[in-house]
Amino acid sequence: MTTDPLTVTTLNGVVWERRAETADGRGLYTCAGVRDCPAFVMATLSDLTVHGLRPTPPPPALAAEAPGPAPTQQDPLNDRLATLEKERAGLLALLPRDACITEGTPNALAAAEAEYGAWELVAGVLGVTLPYASSEPPIPFALTEAGERAAAIERAAARLRAVFDMPASGGEDL
Question: For the whole model, what pTM was predicted?
Answer without folding.
Answer: 0.34
